[in-house]
Amino acid sequence: MDNDLFVEQQVPSGQLTGIRLDILSNEDARTLSAMVIGTANEVSDAALGLPTINAPECVTCGAKSSKDGAKILKDCEGHYGLINLPFTILNPYFMSEVAQILNKICPGCKSFRHNKKANSASSQNQPKNCRYCTGRYKDGYPKMKFKVSSNDVFAKTAIIAEVDEKSLNKGSHRVLASDYWNIIPKDSTYEGSVLQSNKRVLLPGQVYNILKDVCPKTLEALFRRNNSIFLNSLLVTPNSHRVREFGQRISFDETTRMYKRIVDFRGTPNDLSARVVQRYKASKICSEKVSNIELTYEKQSTNDGASSSSGLKNLKELLIGKRTGHCFRLVVVGDPKLKVDEIGLPIQIAESMLIPDSIYPWNWNKLEPCCDSMFSRNGQFSVSRNGQRICVGSKDALETGDSIRRSLIDGDIVLINRPPSIHQHSLIALSVKILPINSVVSINPLTCSPLRGDFDGDCLHGFVPQSVNSRVELKELVSLNKQLVNGQSGQNLLSLSQDSLTAAYLILADGVCLTKPEMQQLQMYGSCLPILPTIIKSTSTETSFWTGKQLFSMLLPMDFEFSYASNGVCIKQGELVSSSHGSSWLRDSGENLFQCLLRHCGEKTLDFLNAAQEVLCEWLSRRGLSVSLLDLCLSSDPQSRKALLDDISYGLKEAEKLSDISLLMVDQNQRFLLESSDEDENMLNYMKEQLYVAQQTSAELCNTSLSASKSVYRDLQNLVYRYADDNNSFLAMLKAGSKGNLQKLFQHSMCLGLQQSSTPLSYSIPRYLSCASWNNQKSHCNVYKSDATREIYSYIPCTVVASSYLSGLNPLECFVHSLTARDSSFSGQADVSGTLTRRLMFFMRDLIIGYDGTVRNCYGNQIVQFNYCTEDMLGTWSDAQMGGHPVGSLAACALSEAAYSALDQPASALETSPLIELKKVLECGVKKKSGSKSASLFLSRKLGRRVNGFECGALKVKDYLESLLFSDVVSEVMISMSTESSTNISPWLCHFHISKEVAKKKRLKMESVINSLHMNCNATGVKVKLNIPKLQIKNRVCSEANVNGNSDSIICISVAVDLDKESLKEFGVLDYLRNVVIPVLLQTVIKGCREFKKVDILWKDELSHFNSSKSSSGELFLRVVMSKHCERTKFWSILKEKCLHISNIIDWDRSHPDDILDYSEAFGIDMAWQYFVQSLDSAISKTGKNILPEHLVITANCLSVTGEFVTLNPKGLGNQRKEANIFSPFMQACFSDPGENFIKAAKMRQKDSLQGSVEALAWGQTPPIGTGCQFDIIYSGKGHEPAKTTDVYSLLSSHLGKLKPNEKIKLPVKPESDNSVSKWKFMKQNGVRSLLTGMISQQSAIDEIHKISRALQRMLQEYAMDCQLSGVDKSTAVRALQFHPRWEEKTKTGAFEIKVGRNPKHEESRCFVLIRTDGTEEDISYRKCIHHALELANPQKAKAYHSKWLKGRS
After folding, report:
1. Which pairing describes strands 342-346 and 427-435: parallel, antiparallel, or unpaired?
2. Residue 868 per-residue DSSP state
3. Sheet with strand 159-163: strands edge to edge
4. Nearest to 652 by CA among 757, 754, 755
5. Sign of CA dihedral 1240, 1243, 1244, 1247
6. Where would you tag: which of 39, 103, 273, 968 has the fewest CB atoms within 10 A of its CB?
7. Which CATH number applies to 498-625: 1.10.260.100, 3.40.640.10, 1.10.274.100, 3.40.50.150?
8. What is the pLDDT of residues 971-1022, one digit of tens each?
9. Considering the chain, what percentage of its residues have pLDDT values greater than 90?
10. What are the DSSP calls for 1041-1094, one per residue?
11. What mean pLDDT do residues 858-886 have?
12. The predicted structure's pLDDT at residue 412
């Protein structure tokens, strides 16, 4: 066990300041190599290090190996070898640069080629006699181009010279001159390959002969090092990188075999280059071989940035990943007897985990038992004294300052991590409690909430700190009492949960009483004072009773005030006065109990949780709470159970009826209303079956059906509360919010209900889930047809399972449920959240708060944000403004947690996934160069003056913009022989039939339709450069329709072909109509704008952030989607141009493109920044998470720090680094494609200064964040001499925002001169200016006044009655209340404090109360203060404010 007896190795120390990357040259390779390899057997020679075959030691350094393979003298890290290549080849890393420079020079005269667009002066330097420079096409000397060969031609390692066929055709003879290729030197040994007559594959020697006459400065500017262009040697990696030793057996990897093939090479130089490239590709940081299954997964994955061939895995293992022996990993279990900030460790783990500690007089009492234990086990142990290791055999030999390595004891601190670390609080420092347990660690169940874990097999990773500094940092920064506030939402992190929450809910119910023995027993578990009983029975033996509310009140601080209006909860002076039968105020909802406790008690809130956990769990264990299958029956009464089943059956029929009615209202299904009859049962069943299949073929129809029946399913779920017994354990936990949810209980006890999936199937699901229905469907093979030309082969699974888990599922119900349940969990989005987390971290992990208060990037100390928390964002953490605070990592964690929480929401084909919407916002719309864009159009508010004005306006815009294809209205197409005879017109006629009802609904004019068909036909001919014959398009009475008897309901447009065109001679008229005319005409846009394929009318909800009731409102808006005919870069300008005729009904101030780059182009980066923050906030709220505005702002600033938004991927990060002129190749290689990034940086000879946290951790440095943040101390050399002495208390009193607890508030004094009124008004105006600092317009001042009004209103709602204001709230209230018209009269002797109280005239309303210095109190209305402030800023607004809030008041 005692493994601390070791010899410390002295290693040279130094500070790593950076790394420079470069391409290995031939000279560098010779310097590094230990030997030159001449034969294939020497590839694994003993000179290259250990292990090797039949050699006990390394020839180069002398390191030896024992028989069992262990190195006993010294470690041999290996040595490089060198292979001298038989030919000089081109360096594979510079192939593209070589081709680039060859295209810039003339191969004939070696001068730079002139550009046709260049001026005449630049072309005078070109030689006049060079035939290749002038490009004499007529003489057979066209321009020669160079490119890198394809992968199937020497594996992209050869240069190909070619002549463009178009350039060749410009000449008169259309052939090359006989001496055209003579400028390329011929190789006497190997002739270049000839692919075609106009192409040549160049050998490396031929490329050298062309480049040797080029100016050396030109080559140096492009290649940085001229000696790196060609290779004549190859470095061989040491044996330790390629040879593996397994006992007595040694194996070689593929790399060794590649080296041997290069040594034994026989062939052409280009073939040798291909083999060298194969060796380079086998590098551990380059591509890896992947299976076909992995490639298929990558193609189907929504994460297009994922790639298993990037080499990231090997880079993590070699550099980024770290190993430590001071850690443990065990399954976690719950133990409510532990304190919230404790972790129970097994004795075996505590004894095996050693930590260094120094002996001093003040800690000897703690270390003496540890020393006794080590002496009893081993008789002696080693200590570190004065930098040396010595062994001691007794306690008398120990000295002050000796460092020992002891086991863990109670009270030690360890760092706990529950992977994956997706949020800030997954790392918590807990205090050790050693327990007699085995193989598991235990924590308090309340600690599961910050760790996002449970007790179903989750594992915890523990890390034992090894230095005093790390232990102090853990205690001061990461301990649980320092993380009581959720870093994502700003709410409380801990609250009652699981059994303790259930107990709190049950104990607060009416009628819960405790006897004296029970009360005394429970009081022992908490440090609470005895209280008088509520009920005293006057009998022979006096009996006293305490209520459950009294027991709960004993746990609260005596001066605690709390109210929760929605649950009717009121706590006065630490006593629970009233509470309804609800538990939301005990959980992590809005302004809950623990949020107020945290603000009132701070870190002492943990004491309340510890006491409440013990008391409540003890009471619950005495009361009893058992769960059985009987609880699933909800009711034990058979009659009640039968009534429940009847209600469920009736509800399902009602939902089915509403679904059918909603489907019948759709246009394509209204024919069933005319054809069906209530008396014809077979027709009615057929109609229902067709409607059900139609519902599965269209997501819109499915959404319509579900929306109609959603309220019924909600009512069915509420039957649980109606029929469940009061003593039902499931219902108790459900109401308490400790476990489960209503939907799960509904599925277990009543019915599974609606089942749907986002993955389409190739078959439909029967309407009734029974084996008979399934067999009947298979036998008939019914396929629903949406029109006469195509069949639907994909179906959206959507059905209702009427059975429950309690009653059992039949085979088909079980199959459907498993099919939908599995897909609804993750679908194809499981990797999206992980990818977003990784990308956010790479972008934001190095954003910290500088010591000047700005937010900076560690890379280049670049300013990202001038201030982290503005006045609108009240800082959540007290250390948020500390220098080095990792605000970027915290914001990335907050967004990542929202992304992972979106996975818990079921995926649906009917609604957009919140995770995909969040991903779309973070990508900033700049990822894909293809794909449709969209824009949001908001209607003018003037339309609200009319009845249904917004609805009519939306329909008008949709009708005007949305493109309507001819194929959308044509119901039938046929070709027939015309009875009319004409010599110039073909007898074959093409008939397009349109329903008159459809034409009426679409408001089509046949003349306009015919003109559109003519225009599209002419435009198509010009576009494809075809001589299309003239078409005769007419609206006529159709003879075919008369035959079928549909002439009254059909409009026929006939098309005939003019026979004068010669193009018809190539193919027949019938084929021309069928293959050309019909496809072209059906794709004609006959109405609307061809640039916009779809216009949707949508509803946008707007939540009131300042109204406690959270009342929702909204408006209609239109989403316009571009078509393939619209130019992507001009989408917004085209949309505005097309809307000129309807611009009066569109509010262009609020309308905008949805793409963030288009938004920035149209409105500027400031407006785009605000739009991004709003979109990100909306996307996160849809995941069900709340997030602090600080995180949103810093994310927006991080992505737009260069002046424009970049996408969240490696390319976007690279663009940011390039704009800032910062080189970080190591970090970018860790992000994506390490091989490509390292090669690119090496070719540019870049230096990485290792400024980020990834580089610091990989190379053993301290990350420049948190306590590792660096700062400069600037000293002028001259001491500071104050000009005059200053009374510090007078200085502090001038800052109202930093008042001391007992300090008198400094008030303005009214002047006593004659013009006192004007001066007082002037002072108030100056007060407004000071209050609204930075407001440059009247509107800004009004907005600031309203913001202060909302802040005052928030204080009245949040603070408990008679609770005094403090901090920023007090400063804001003092400045605002000074505008009260009777401020001087109310203050009199001076204001001492401000608190929240009740208005004496209106006791139901709250107001602010001034506490004067003499102890008297005076109420003050904040609305009068706001009203007078508005009078100074805008009298008209003040009148409106007065009529709304102060009407009837003096």
Report:
1. parallel
2. S
3. 144-148, 159-163, 199-202
4. 754
5. positive
6. 39
7. 1.10.274.100
8. 888 888 876 666 677 778 888 888 888 888 888 888 888 888 888 888 877 6
9. 10
10. HHHHT-TTTEEEEEEEEBTT-GGGGTS-HHHHIIIIIHHHHHT-EEES-TTEEE
11. 72
12. 92
Note the CATH number of domain 631-825. 1.10.132
Residue 1211 backbone dihedrals phi, psi, to 5 degrees: -65, -45
CB 140 within 8 A of CB 171: yes
Helices (H), 22-62: 26-32
Residue 569: what residue type?
V
Q: Where are the domains of the chain?
A: 22-86+236-282, 92-228, 319-482, 498-625, 631-825, 964-971+980-1087, 1288-1445
608/616 Cα distance (integer angstroms): 12
Question: Within 10 A of 1151 (CB to CB), how many other CB atoms are there?
Answer: 21
Which of 1243 and 288 is assigned the larger pLDDT?
A: 1243
How far is residue 1104's CA from residue 1217's CA, in Å, rounded to a whole number? 40
Of 1339, 1371, 1333, nearest in space to 1355 by CA: 1371
631-825 matches 1288-1445 in fold: no
CA gap 1176, 918 in Å, rounded: 7
CA distance 1363 to 1373: 14
* CB of 373 closer than 8 Å to CB of 644: no
Buried b (16+ CB within 10 A) or exposed e, 335-358: bbebbbbbbbbbeebbbbbbbebe
CA distance 105 to 97: 13
Q: Please, which residues have CB within 8 angstroms of residue 1222's CB and are 6 or more apart in sequence?
A: 859, 860, 862
For residue 1041, give both structure tokens.
Answer: 């329709």
Q: Are strands 249-252 and 243-246 parallel, antiparallel or unpaired?
A: antiparallel
C-alpha closest to that of 239 among 479, 4, 65: 65
Longest CA span, the chain: 133
CB 555 within 8 A of CB 612: yes
Q: What is the DSSP letter of 1228?
A: H
pLDDT at site 1146: 92
Count how many residues are written for the chain.
1450
DSSP assigned state of 905: S
pLDDT top residue among 684 and 245: 245
Structure confidence by residue, pLDDT tens digits, 405-427: 889 999 999 999 988 888 888 89
Query: For residue 1068, what are the contacts with CB-CB under 8 A and spacing of at least 6?
Result: none
- CATH number, span 1288-1445: 3.10.450.40
- In single-letter form, the type of residue at position 142 comes to P
Q: Could you tell me which CATH number the domain at 319-482 has?
A: 2.40.40.20
The CA-atom distances, in angstroms, between 1100 and each of 708, 908, 1112 are 20, 20, 10
- Name residue 462's beta-bridge partners: 328, 416
Cα→Cα distances 402→356, 360, 389, 409, Å: 10, 8, 10, 19
CA nearest to 889, candidates 850, 930, 919, 844: 844
Residue found by looking up tokens 């394809």 in the block: 150
pLDDT in tens, 308-355: 445 788 788 777 777 788 899 999 999 988 999 999 999 999 988 999
1164 Cβ neighbours under 8 A, 6+ residues apart:
none
92-135 pLDDT per residue, tens:
888 888 888 888 888 877 777 765 544 444 445 555 667 777 65
Cβ distance 339 to 479 under 8 Å?
no
* Nearest residue to 842 (alpha-carbon basis) of 372, 1352, 305, 462: 305
Q: Buried b vs exposed e over 1175-1202: b needs ≥16 C-beta within 10 Å? A: bbbbbbebbebbbbebbbbbbbbbbbbe
